[in-house]
Amino acid sequence: LTLTHTHTHTHTRARFDRTQEHTYTHKLSLSRKEMQPLRRRRSHIPDKPNYSLNLWSIMKNCIGKELSKIPMPVNFNEPLSMLQRLTEDLEYHELLDKAARCESSLEQLCLVAAFSVSSYSTTIHRTAKPFNPLLGETYELDRLEDFGYRSLCEQVSHHPPAASHHVISQRGWTLWQEITIASKFRGKYLSIMPLGAIHLQFHSSGNHYVWRKVTSTVHNIIVGKLWIDQSGDIEIVNHRTKETCQLKFSPYSYFSREVPRKVTGVVSDSGGQAHYILSGTWDDKIESSKIVQSSKGGSGSEGKQKTVYQTLSPKLLWKKYPLPDNAENMYFFSALALTLNEPEDGVGLTDSRLRPDQRLMEAGRWDEANSEKQRLEEKQRAVRRRREAEATDGFQPQWFHKRTNAITGETNFVYKGGYWEAKDSQDWSMCTEIF
Q1: Mind giving me the DSSP string for 99-125?
Q2: How many domains does the chain have?
């Protein structure tokens, strides 16, 4: 994409745009003040102990294998489960609150795109592996009073590992996804491919967006410092209006002069005409620029003809929050991540917060955590053997059931209801004892 800014706006306009980022940050801090949570949540966890264990000593036996089948000590984990990591997608939920208030569906799509990119911002330094949830493990994040939403995840399959997630917001949107994590160790690097569609529906307009996640790659498994990259394309489709956003995550290249972790995108109407250009990086910010004119330019790489867009000055859609103090000693957790495993009253008996090996690991008691992890995994295997011996229908999730989606044609586990009612009445008699 070649971008040229039109010079139709005056100097005052340009000066205004330069202060836009500052204004946005100021507004954000104001809206953050208005959104002050009702209860004080924790802002730190015990520092990560300094245990040395060679990753390669374990990984060398795993080349080409599906990683979820390899028992890994907690030394390579972070004290959160995959369900909690999935819930972290909601860190910038206010983008969806804002999108729900949009008059224009194209502007709404820009915000949805920014939201889809924001879920990667937390991964930049997070090279540790989340705990693989036990079958039937759940995780709730009840932020109804603070931010208007309630989120629930459940591990619905163990091989392959799959989690279903459902979020409903009083601020006008519902999000749901079932994500299966496929991971392959390729020698020098590890590929993590989240499979499955993410659905987002806005209540007032009925706009229904669907997109999928890109591939994450963990580099330097054998030697050097681990680092993470995101690469691939995301297509976000509004199935009501047929408007689309094409996002491209450029893979890191040592030889490229491009800014690393770059994301570019085009938002188009149902006829394929481009209206907005999106640009930024997945670890910092995303901006949108309204297109005022487009023309065919000279031929670009691979002999394709370039489209040259003339745009207005960029407008900031999303900016990453700075990491908390001492984050480097707390697994590089964001402010939200630090609160996710905080003990909470009244949660379901299968909630990740109650998982003992993860709790011990968070407390820095890694040796105990490792033996507890082995106990839990053996307990889970025993349950599976018993289920197979009884030749029952197999595992049925407690809060999600299989339904075929009319839009994608895929059959997935979707929320069937009942969890929040059980929480209100504190009746968890239907929960199985998994810990």
Answers
A1: HHT-S-HHHHHHHHHHHHHHTTGGGTT
A2: 1
Query: Judging by beta carbons within 10 Å of its beta carbon (0-12, 13-18, 19+), is residue 169 exposed, middle or buried?
Result: buried
Residue 82 maps to a domain: yes
| In-domain check, residue 21 | no
d(CA 62, CA 183): 11
- Inter-helix orientation angle 20-34/11-18, to 10°: 40
Can you tell me the distance from the alpha carbon of 55 to that of 52, in angstroms, rounded to the nearest whole number? 9
What pLDDT, in 10s, does the model give residues 284-314? Answer: 999 999 999 988 876 666 667 788 899 999 9
**H-only helix segments in 94-210:** 94-100, 105-118, 144-147
What is the distance between the alpha carbons of residues 327 and 210, in angstroms, rounded to a whole number? 33
pLDDT digits (tens, 9 = 90+) for 59-112: 666 677 666 666 778 888 999 999 999 999 999 999 999 999 999 999 999 999
Question: Which has the closest alpha carbon to 276: 122, 120, 102?
Answer: 102
Cα dist from 191 to 39, 84, 98, 120, 218, whole Å? 39, 20, 34, 15, 7
Phi and psi torsions of 265, nearest 5°: -160, 160
- Sign of the dihedral through C-alpha 122, 171, 149, 26: positive
On the CB side of 63, CA atoms within 13 Å amount to 8
Question: Three-state DSSP class for 289?
Answer: strand
371: CB partners within 8 A, 6+ apart? none
Q: Per the domain annotation, does 193 fall within a domain?
A: yes
Look at residue 305 and tell me if it is in a domain.
no
Q: What would the two tokens of residue 42 be?
A: 């924790």
The tens digit of pLDDT for each residue in 182-229 reads: 888 888 889 999 999 999 999 999 999 999 999 999 998 888 888 999
Mean pLDDT of 416-427: 97
Hey, what are 247's tokens?
């996002």
Exposure string over 215-252, b if 16+ CB within 10 A, otherwise e? ebbbbebeeeebebbbebebebbbbebebbbbbbbbeb
DSSP letters of 377-402?
A: HHHHHHHHHHHHHHT-S----SSEEE
Domain extent, residue 126, equals 53-245+324-435
Is 368 exposed, middle or buried, given 0-12, 13-18 or 19+ CB atoms closer than 10 A? Answer: middle
